[in-house]
Amino acid sequence: MRGRTLAWRRLVAVWAPAAAFLLLSLVGLVWLSGKTVGRQAQVARDVQRLEERVQRLQRLRRQAAEERAAVEELYTGMRFLNSKVFGSLEKRLTPILRDVGAANRMAGLRPTRFSYDAKKVKKMGLFRFGINFNVTGRFAQIVDLLRGLKASPQFLVVDSIKLAGEKGTATDELKMSVHLSTYLAQADATLLKALTAGAPSKEGGR
Fold it and tell me: Smallest Cα–Cα separation from 142: which of 121, 118, 164, 170?
């Protein structure tokens, strides 16, 4: 037994460095393992943050695409209105007058004293073109006139109907002043001036 102890002591120079190296290796392994675990946790957090950013960017991209589509749809609608609905005075004047005449004929009315007015609507970038005429007829004919104007494919707004029947008379006929208006995307200045009897077009903010 004592011989073994002496041998162990005699060989201490051999096994001591090996034991020390083993101990240091274990310590280093533990330290590296802890550092690796910490690094993995940091990497996992970084990955999670990146994924959240990617998801947020994807949502923003979808939102931007939807907004672009909405704006394009709006522009398409405006182009359609300007070209097909509002159009120009030169192209729409004859159809409008034709439909106004047809509505009056359907109601059995004979319009007189046509006059026109116009103003520029700055906020809309359009011209508001007005048509005023007088008719004489019964209330039922007024209803028929409005029905005929409503059936017109032209964009027409009945702004006002002023009644001027004489009081105390036995007749049921009424004198009416009807004012219609429409919007135009374009209006030739010369034609507009001729229709409005040379009066300059008014400018409106609404």
Answer: 164
